[in-house]
Specification:
The protein is elongated. β9 and β10 form a beta hairpin. The mean pLDDT is about 90. It has about 190 residues and is an all-beta fold.
Length: about 190
């Protein structure tokens, strides 16, 4: 005969590693939202990140990660901030309870969004041409310029009814000339 004993007191068991870890870009490439499935018996979660994919993240060795942030359970998401736009990052999460930390979850990788272009300027060397220039964005591989003569409607790159034309320029080029525009008309531009 065998006798089996169990306990419903999770405090005597080390937390289980969270699963289904995902990472998603937030905005301008300096932040990433990391989320995971809840694990039972957890007091808090800590996410870790690094831009060095050649070294696995070891939470006990700060030289293996660039940053971390902790949230209290039952929260199952956190935001990594201070990231470099256009850079590959690895992320993991560790669950902790009074018995100690779990093993790190399987790492996920994400390329952060490129930085937002700044300093857009427009000059008109002729009646039907506009020359545009802007500052380079960290991590950009290309730039798309959108324009519209409907200056009362904001340009939304995801809605082609809000712009009348677009062109894509490969980085590192940060300028373009648009020709064939209507003389005497006002235009709005977005990069």
């Amino acid at each position: 005969n065998y006798t089996v004993y169990w306990s419903t007191d999770n405090s005597s068991f080390t937390a289980i590693s969270p699963d289904n870890l995902t990472a998603a870009n937030v905005g301008d490439g300096t932040s990433v939202n990391v989320s995971w499935n809840a694990a039972n018996g957890v007091d808090n979660y800590t996410i870790y990140w690094t831009d060095d994919s050649s070294t696995p993240i070891d939470p006990s060795n700060p030289s293996t990660y660039d940053g971390s942030t902790t949230v209290t359970a039952p929260t199952t998401s956190a935001t990594a901030t201070g990231l470099t736009p256009g850079t590959n990052y690895d992320f993991t999460v560790v669950a902790t309870n009074s018995a100690g930390p779990s093993s790190p979850a399987t790492e996920v990788n994400l390329l952060t969004n490129p930085g937002v272009p700044t300093g857009l300027t427009a000059t008109s060397p002729s009646d039907s041409q506009i020359d545009l220039t802007w500052n380079a964005s960290t991590g950009a591989s290309s730039y798309t310029v959108y324009w519209t003569a409907n200056t009362g409607t904001p340009i939304n790159p995801n809605d082609n009814t809000t712009y009348s034309g677009s062109t894509t320029i490969s980085a590192p080029v940060t300028s373009t000339s648009l020709t064939g525009l209507s003389a005497g008309s006002s235009y709005d531009f977005v990069v």
